[in-house]
Amino acid sequence: THNLPPGLEYLNQLDQIIIHQQVELLEAILGTETSSKYEIKNPLGQRVYFAVEENGCFDRKLCSPLRAFTIRIADNAGREVIRVIRPLRCNSCCCPCFLQELEVQSPPGTIAGYVVQNWDPFLPKFTIQNQSKEDVLKIIGPCATCGCFDDVDFEVKALNEMTTIGKISKYWSGFVNDVFTNTANFGIQVPVDLDVRIKAVMIGACFLIDLMFFENSLDGL
């Protein structure tokens, strides 16, 4: 563990990560989009990290699901250990150019890996890359991500897309929560021996999936 990025030692023990978006009262009452805040927990519900999205009001109002952002992830001592950077890019199944690409740094300033959207006319597809931009894993979502009263699973697969090794799940959180807020609860399941840098990139992928497919406050219907 002495070769691990500072702050990621704890991920070395986990095969399941829970990400809980915190409810913003102003957003719930007025429908005003606010910067997202998340708690990242272990399977026992204990907080491991917390995350805060940084961007401008202009981005949130006009670019909402496509908005550029920087998410800073800190440990319980307040030390930033992961930084997730998303530039403003396209999001359309009709346009194979300039698709989503997200950079994950750990420690901040040092590349841990990337999440790259792959063009597909029917399915959400992404490639997880390491710090050298070498392909490591694939993420493939369902045709429909509305999640009608059920969880929505994005499968984590080997590069051949035949073997499933984990998943990113958006948990259905109930009618009231989904109608009046767009807060989300996600679970990441990966092999415990997966490189912690790639686990950090999977956390970034979870944030990207949330913004791309579940930003709409009616996503649970």
TrEMBL record:
<dbReference type="Pfam" id="PF03803">
    <property type="entry name" value="Scramblase"/>
</dbReference>
<keyword id="KW-0449">Lipoprotein</keyword>
<dbReference type="GO" id="GO:0017128">
    <property type="term" value="F:phospholipid scramblase activity"/>
</dbReference>
<dbReference type="GO" id="GO:0005886">
    <property type="term" value="C:plasma membrane"/>
</dbReference>
<keyword id="KW-0106">Calcium</keyword>
<protein>
    <recommendedName>
        <fullName>Phospholipid scramblase</fullName>
    </recommendedName>
</protein>
<dbReference type="InterPro" id="IPR005552">
    <property type="entry name" value="Scramblase"/>
</dbReference>
<keyword id="KW-0564">Palmitate</keyword>
<comment type="similarity">
    <text>Belongs to the phospholipid scramblase family.</text>
</comment>
<comment type="function">
    <text>May mediate accelerated ATP-independent bidirectional transbilayer migration of phospholipids upon binding calcium ions that results in a loss of phospholipid asymmetry in the plasma membrane.</text>
</comment>
